Amino acid sequence: MLAGRECRKRFALELLRNGWAPTLLLSVGRFEVRRFSSLGLARSPDLRAVASQTEPRLRHYFVKVDSDATEVRRIPVGWWGTWSEIQAFSNWLREHSRIRSATIVSSAFHLRRVRMCCRRLVSGSTRLHFVAVPEEHRYLREHWWRDARARKLVLAEFLKIASYQALGSGLTA
């Protein structure tokens, strides 16, 4: 589950609870740390305490949740946030080589850019599935032009996609 909107995390947790996978890897960005405890994980780490030991601009974490434990790992995130996040995910997959498939949860408007990054960075030996948060997708698809915040979100994503495409040849794994 990629960092960003809280509905992504809630939907990913719902998928975990419904048995979609034995492990959930939550990406938690700097401004999400404060709200992390509200997700209600059974063995929730004290992410605020972990973050307090880290310089604010470096606060981005993977939180691995499975039946055995919950683990926190800081990940590097650069200027190209989604690219950096997928690079960290790719590295994590290499370290957990027994994983042969993964479902990536994000917002529908974000999945095109996520796929672009995954094609460049994630090994072809890992089968990837992309799932959009359903409620959010329905609202944005039907009403994005009516709401100023939604318009800004969608239009910003178009600009980001164009930037990633233009710079894609210069971005290396």
Core attributes:
alpha+beta, three-stranded antiparallel β-sheet
Main beta sheet strand tally, sense and closure = 3 strands, antiparallel
Enumerate the spans where pLDDT stays under 50 for 5 or more consecutive residues. Answer: none
**Number of contiguous helices:** 6
Mean pLDDT: 84
> Secondary-structure element order, as H and E?
HEHEEHEHEHH
| Helix share, percent | 40-55%
Kindly, what is the distance between the CA atoms of the first and last residues, rounded to a whole number of angstroms? 20 Å
General description of the model:
- The protein has 173 residues and is an alpha+beta fold.
- The protein has one domain (6-167).
- Helix content is 45%, strand content 17%.
- It starts with 5 loop residues before the first helix and ends in a 6-residue tail after the last helix.
- The model has no long low-confidence stretch (mean pLDDT 84).
Topology (SSEs and partners):
Blueprint: H1 6-17, E1 23-28, H2 47-52, E2 61-66, E3 70-74, H3 81-95, E4 101-106, H4 108-121, E5 127-132, H5 134-143, H6 148-167
Parallel strand pairs: 4-5
Antiparallel strand pairs: 1-2, 2-3
Helix pairs in contact: 3-4, 4-6
